[in-house]
Write a structure and sequence with these properties.
This protein is α/β, with parallel strands linked by helices. The protein has two domains: 176 residues, NAD(P)-binding Rossmann-like Domain (Rossmann fold); 120 residues, N-(1-d-carboxylethyl)-l-norvaline Dehydrogenase, domain 2. The protein contains 13 helices and twelve strands. The protein has an eight-stranded mixed beta sheet with strand order 5-2-1-6-7-8-11-12, sandwiched between helices. Helix 4 packs parallel to helix 5. 45% of the residues are buried.
Amino acid sequence: MRIAVIGAGGVGGPFGSALARSGEDVWFLARGAHLDAMRKDGLKITGARGDFHLENVQATDSAEEIGKVDFVLFTPKLWDVETTGLAIKPLLDSHTGVITLQNGVDAPDRLASVIGREAVIPGVAVINAAIEAPGRIQQMGEYQNLTYGEFDGTESGRVQALLASCEAAGIEARISANIIKDLWEKFVFLVSVSSLTAASRQRMGYIRTDPDARATLMRLLSEVAAVGRAHGVPLADNLAETRLAMIDGQNAESIASMTIDLLRGNRLELPWLAGKAVALGIEHDVETPALQALLGALKPYTMGPAELPKV
């Protein structure tokens, strides 16, 4: 099976490497120093699931060089969805499935607007990893889960084929009959954790053990879940509690990717995470005071380091 991984970062790197190690024909579409390092020395993954070195990496910055593929693991940042979607058209055949693995809840529809809805398979990646240096990715948790499904919930031949490949690669994969609900369940968790870890500049261990931070986290989870229900998503009444229990089981050193971007002075996905949840709350007349406060505190850093006022 031919698979193109768009972005070899904290999501695409580990998933693509696992598939390549199992024998799939995997290509990475990357750029810059990370691409140069992969071409020269391969891709190294370190962390909780063990260390391995994918030495013979097929990597390029040209979709034309890769050609038509069976699947695309689509992992660019949220601000690049449409632009990157147009750039991957040379990869697409009539049967190609493009698995969207962005944070947020609107990437599948946004990508469908530029490549066609029939090509898009919405997906949810549960993994905590980040680029540590060019050609090197650190994974901070043992989980490496992939949930995906067709928009209409059918188990098509292509989603079944991908499941077999994932299982052979050691990826915990699941075909979903309601992928939009799955997207929102992650969104509730991710918006809450990313907003609070970024605003506090703290890791998960602090967030879940400090009484004030934990209370704020529970408030955030409840607010975003309420927005989802108002938006028509059938989220469980106890979703905030089950997400908090999941957080309690995570590695204390875990940290949201948006927080890593903030600490590194990078652009943030804030408008599509907390910003999107607040906007939907306003649209559906759901109050989100805790989330709106953190959104306001983080907004100056959306495009990178904020210039501090002179005093």
